[in-house]
Design brief:
It is built from four helices and three strands. The chain is of the alpha+beta class. Strand 1 and strand 2 form a beta hairpin. Helix 1 runs antiparallel to helix 2.
């Protein structure tokens, strides 16, 4: 013999869920967009470092335009940043690459924070490297080490 219990279910679960979803969904979307923002900022920093490294190694080559190469490096690779401008300057001892773009936030950020977009800026300055000089130093050090080994033996 089985005993049946009669449960009376009301619509309280539906109402509680709808109230919670009004809070949880915007929070989840905000977390996702914050991840997009952090990805774009990190990507632009890494792209600036890569463009500056490439420019510092090819400083003697007059055919390389650092700004154009920096623009090609980031084309179509950001998640939410638009209107990205690349700026570069090659001096006698240093090279500088900088990016500036606008990241737009969706939804209700204007009433809460007063703005719907944030500016992402990242850049780096590196010393120029002349590979031929570095190779000469390494070969000279190698010759000294080999001479010391021969003298010791």
């Amino acid at each position: 013999m089985t005993i049946q219990k009669n449960y009376v279910l009301s619509g309280s679960y539906t109402i509680e869920t709808s109230l919670l979803m009004g809070i949880l969904l915007p929070l989840l979307v905000g977390i996702i967009y914050m991840g997009f923002f952090l990805h774009d900022r990190s990507f632009l920093q890494c792209a600036a470092h890569e463009a500056a490294s490439c420019a510092s190694l090819h400083v003697d080559d007059t055919n390389i335009d650092v700004t154009t190469a920096a623009q090609k490096l980031i084309k179509g690779r950001t998640l939410g940043t638009h209107d990205i401008s690349a700026d570069s300057a090659v001096g006698t001892r240093q090279v500088r690459v900088a990016y500036k773009g606008t990241f737009s936030f969706p939804g209700l950020t204007v009433p809460f924070f007063g703005q719907s977009a944030s500016v992402i800026q990242s850049g780096i300055t590196l010393n120029l490297e002349r590979p031929s000089r570095r190779i000469q130093k390494i070969r000279g050090a190698s010759k000294v080490i080999n001479a010391l080994r021969r003298n010791r033996a």
